[in-house]
Write a structure and sequence with these properties.
The complex is a heterodimer of chains A (117) and B (116). With 117 residues, chain A is mostly beta strands. Chain A contains no helices and eleven strands. Chain A is globular, with a radius of gyration of 14 Å. The relative contact order of chain A is 0.33. Chain B is mainly β and 116 residues long. Helix content of chain B is 0%, strand content 53%. Chain B has no helices and eleven strands. In chain B, strands 2, 4, 5, 6, 9, 10 and 11 form a seven-stranded mixed beta sheet that branches. Chain B has a four-stranded antiparallel beta sheet with strand order 1-3-8-7, with no helix packed on it. Chain B is globular. The N and C termini of chain B lie far apart (37 Å). The mean pLDDT of chain B is 93. The chains are: A mainly beta (117), B mainly beta (116). Chains A and B meet through β4, β5 and β9 of A and β5, β9 and β10 of B.
Chain lengths: 117, 116
């Protein structure tokens, strides 16, 4: 099946530093989404991107939809302790040919972020 | 954003019993909901797509008789783990798309199942 690759797998940063992580795929997606998951919780949607080249911000978070539609990155500026968690990228394909709607969403393996005080 | 709520958030049961997990869309109607399973330190694994008023679509390798899904209304889907065994212990998460073709998925809080 389709796969998304996320890098880095994990990262340790000092509080106040900026963070960059990215997501790549061999497939084209119509929408890129970034989620954050805290331990024992469900993922929370951070940013949704709909157009190739789109750059969107949500507070200290900035994400971009790659021009090729096969990648996306997420930046976090001035990290704080509550940024700790797992960040998942997800791609959505709009496919009328696919019977199983759920397979239109593909998730990356996640980037585990640790913020040191 | 849209709100999806799961209940219970955690459950402990004896081997052989059945456990029901509810997933509700609180402020929007969801004709489709998705059920995922997540193992420690891993990503989300799609188990099945729940369709309001019709049968669920299961992913390959997911037992239909083990994981019963019912989507009786536009705001409620349930996952029942039947005759649970320790290997069914996991974190189960539901999600629902706000609008079918936009790709925005909203997740419930997750339900931690521990089978003794």
């Amino acid at each position: 099946g389709q796969q998304l690759n996320q890098s880095p797998q994990s990262m340790f940063i000092q509080e106040g530093e900026d963070v960059s992580m990215n997501c790549t795929s061999s497939s084209i997606f119509n929408t890129w989404l970034w989620y954050k998951q805290d331990p024992g919780e469900g993922p929370v949607l951070l940013i949704a991107l709909y157009k190739a080249g789109e750059l969107t911000s949500n507070g200290r978070l900035t994400a971009q939809f790659g021009i090729t539609r096969k990648d996306s990155f997420l930046n976090i500026s001035a990290s704080i302790p509550s940024d700790v968690g797992i960040y998942f990228c997800a791609g959505h394909q709009l496919s009328i040919l696919r019977d199983n709607y759920g397979q239109n969403f593909v998730f990356g393996p996640g980037t585990r972020l640790s913020v040191l005080p | 954003g849209a709100v999806v709520s799961q209940h219970p958030s955690w459950v402990i049961c004896k081997s052989g019993t059945s456990v029901k997990i509810e997933c509700r869309s609180l402020d929007f109607q969801a004709t489709t909901m998705f059920w995922y399973r997540q193992f420690p330190k891993q990503s989300l694994m799609l188990m099945a797509t729940s369709n309001e008023g019709s049968k669920a679509t299961y992913e390959q390798g997911v037992e239909k008789d083990k994981f019963l899904i019912n989507h009786a209304s536009l705001t409620l889907s349930t996952l029942t783990v039947t005759s649970a065994h320790p290997e069914d212990s996991s974190f189960y998460i539901c999600s629902a798309p706000l609008r079918r073709n936009t790709g925005e998925l909203f997740f419930g809080e997750g339900s931690r199942l521990t089978v003794l």
